[in-house]
Amino acid sequence: MEHRHLGRSGLLVSVVTYGNWLTHGESVAREAALSCVRAALEAGITTFDTADVYARGAAEELLGEALRGVRRESVEIATKVCLPVGDGPNDRGLSRKHVIESCHASLRRLGTDYVDLYQAHRYDDRTPLAETLLAFEDLVRQGKVRYLGVSEWTAAQIRSALDVADQLGIRNRIVSNQPQYNMLWRVVEPEVVPLCVREGIGQIAFQPLAQGVLTGKYRPGEAPPPGSRATSAGRAPTFIRRVLGEPLLERVQRLRPVADQAGLSMAQLAVAWTLHRPGVSTALIGASRPEQVTENVGAAGVRLDDEVLRRVDETLGDLVETDRTKTARMMAVKPDWAG
After folding, report:
1. pLDDT tens digits for range 213-245
2. 55 pLDDT higher than 70
3. Rg of the chain taking only CA atoms, in angstroms
4. What's the rounded Cα separation, in Å, for the pair 9 and 17?
């Protein structure tokens, strides 16, 4: 397993991160979830990502259970705060109250004294940035958080956070951003990635497989295969159906000979492509079965030549989304905190 620095920080992360959105505590049974984490550890993955909102806290609990007995210093645990975790007026957002209370709750569920990376899950335009950043700074000083990150923030929002941190003399600046990023969804490339590269902020790219679409298992004109995310329990089918469409599925199938040329499975090609992009520190994968973890880890250390990259772009063509405004339009937290 290859490791990279998270941005310009000193923290090393495995180039493949194991995450449990839509799986642990929701669509994957407990024993299967524990087996996937064991497979990740056996494959050399040391970085694990979750969030307080995933499965209403059950995802953090399962990850904590799966890592019990593992030497704490040998893994990097990341979690997030912002999205609603209850019905109370302060059970959401990035206020000082919610950030600190949510951190303590996450630590209890994970069964650890600290998290290596604490991320603002979305931007909160109802709370002053200074309040949020000072709350994060206090958690770092208390030893409960090692590094700070954000997820799905626009370039302007990240720039504002860096400027406010400088004005306040905060030394623990943002070191990571976690955006959706894959062959099909590249909206962070025009503005977010260039800013982050300049400022030493690493990308933790989630959905490198585009909800499994880039594995090629969803075929045009056919029902989703049994056991796939599109047929699972929980919210997963709702998310995957947003990206299923005949023209897209037909185009993705044309990537199969490209993967064959590179000696990779389609899943490995997709993960390797993401890891090849500038500024990406790690690609975040999920899994419902241990063999999926093992396959995806096969992308670690793969080098794609220019011909393969060219064929990917030519094959996907106008289906690639690069509209920079969609980061803001689709990912900002709505006033009613829906979605």
Report:
1. 999 988 877 666 666 555 455 555 554 555 666
2. yes
3. 19
4. 17
User: What angle, 0 to 180 degrees and rounded to 10, lies between the N-to-C axes of helices 30-42 and 58-66?
Assistant: 50
Question: Catalytic residue numbers?
Answer: 54
Task: Decide if pLDDT at 139 tops 50.
Answer: yes
CA dihedral sign, ordered 189, 279, 154, 163: negative
Paired tokens of 161: 């956070």
Which pLDDT tens digit goes with each residue over 28-38?
889 999 999 99
pLDDT of residue 246: 77
d(CA 23, CA 59): 8
Helix (H, G, I), strand (E, B), or coil: what is residue 118? strand
Backbone dihedral angles phi then psi of residue 302, each to the nearest 5 degrees:
-75, 135
The per-residue b/e assignment along 125-155, b for 16 or more CB within 10 angstroms, e otherwise, is eebebebbbbbbbebbeeebbbbbbbbbbbb
Say if pTM beats, i.e. exceeds, 0.70.
Answer: yes
56: left (phi over 0), alpha (psi -120 to 50) or beta: left
User: pLDDT tens digits, residue range 235-293?
Assistant: 555 545 556 667 889 999 999 999 999 999 999 999 999 999 999 999 999 998 999 99
Domains (range + CATH), the chain: 3-210+268-303+323-331 (3.20.20.100)
Q: Which residues pair with 228 in a beta bridge?
A: none
